[in-house]
Amino acid sequence: MQKVLSFGEVLWDVINGQAYIGGAPFNLAGHLAQLGEDAFLYSKVGEDSLGIRAWQEITNLGVGTKYVKIDDRYPTGTAIVTLNEQGIPSYSFPDGVSYQHIDADSAAFRSIRNEAFSLFYFGSMVQMAEESRDTLFRILETCPFPEIFFDVNVRRGFCPREMVETSLRYATILKLNEEEAQRFAALLPGCAGEAEMVCSLFAQYDQLRCVLVTRGPRGCTVYSRGEMRDINECVSKAVDTVGAGDAFSAGFISGLLAGWDLFRSARCGGILSDFVAASNGAIPAYPDALRERLRSC
């Protein structure tokens, strides 16, 4: 069991008046806990009914709450989900919510340095809020981590060059989907596509060891400094793809922490992502057959 710290938003997706807990950092930590890792969240929820429910969900999953604060000023974050006639969702994110005000805490920073975390995870959505963004980069500046996983989650079209460049100065692992890879390529001069973008990133950021590009039912591409490999473990018919990308990240991280190479770790991520896409909910319970398949991938 190794320790992972996941930084960022805990929020509720509100669909037709019903609230479902989510947020990539929450989903990742929940999956890692199910995979047997010692997962912690660094986040904030409101002192309201959704915050109380979020705290219960976090603890029920076995995720550490040591770095989760209760905010008496701002409500728990939500995402308002609207489905069109084809069932395709669109999202709106109310401002003035707790995950936008994750504050710096010197005592927490000291504790993090003493915890000996094996990996730190963060995304891009939480960086839309100045206070949370500042806290994120204070952690990265003052707390050492052997691995730092940057998961790009473009929301509201938020993908400014400054955010990308600052985040990449710390990341050892970068994960994005095909659409996000195209956005990254457009940000980098002289990059006509994904392969050129990856080569440019490896040339600019010495600490970056791999880039993961997920492709939905077509699996993923793993780029290391010496090799590129396509991996596809998708065998099921998707039922609900919410959280499938976060499951991929968790499976990959768990494999990496077990000492597996990048490609075997990506297979683990693909198996878990495929299972979640074929299930209802972002963090369904794991059957024994899935656990056996993950062990032997």
Describe the structure.
The chain has 297 residues and is α/β, with parallel strands linked by helices. 38% of the residues lie in helices and 24% in strands. The chain is built from 10 helices and 13 strands. A 9-stranded mixed beta sheet has the order 5-4-1-8-9-10-11-12-13. Helix 6 (178-187) crosses helix 7, helix 8 runs antiparallel to helix 9 and helix 9 (262-277) packs antiparallel against helix 10 (288-295). The chain is globular. The protein starts with a strand and ends with a helix. The model has no long low-confidence stretch (mean pLDDT 91).
Short description:
This protein has 297 residues and is of the alpha/beta class. The chain has helices spanning 24-34, 49-60, 106-115, 130-142, 161-168, 178-187, 194-204, 244-257, 262-277, 288-295; strands spanning 3-7, 11-15, 18-22, 38-46, 64-71, 77-83, 89-92, 119-123, 147-151, 173-177, 210-214, 220-224, 228-231.
Summary tags:
globular; UDP-N-acetylmuramoyl-L-alanine:D-glutamate ligase; 297 residues; alpha/beta; nine-stranded mixed sheet; 10 helices; single chain; 13 strands; four-stranded mixed sheet
Helices and strands in order:
Elements: E1 3-7, E2 11-15, E3 18-22, H1 24-34, E4 38-46, H2 49-60, E5 64-71, E6 77-83, E7 89-92, H3 106-115, E8 119-123, H4 130-142, E9 147-151, H5 161-168, E10 173-177, H6 178-187, H7 194-204, E11 210-214, E12 220-224, E13 228-231, H8 244-257, H9 262-277, H10 288-295
Parallel strand pairs: 1-4, 1-8, 2-6, 4-5, 8-9, 9-10, 10-11
Antiparallel strand pairs: 2-3, 6-7, 11-12, 12-13
Helix pairs in contact: 1-8, 6-7, 8-9, 9-10
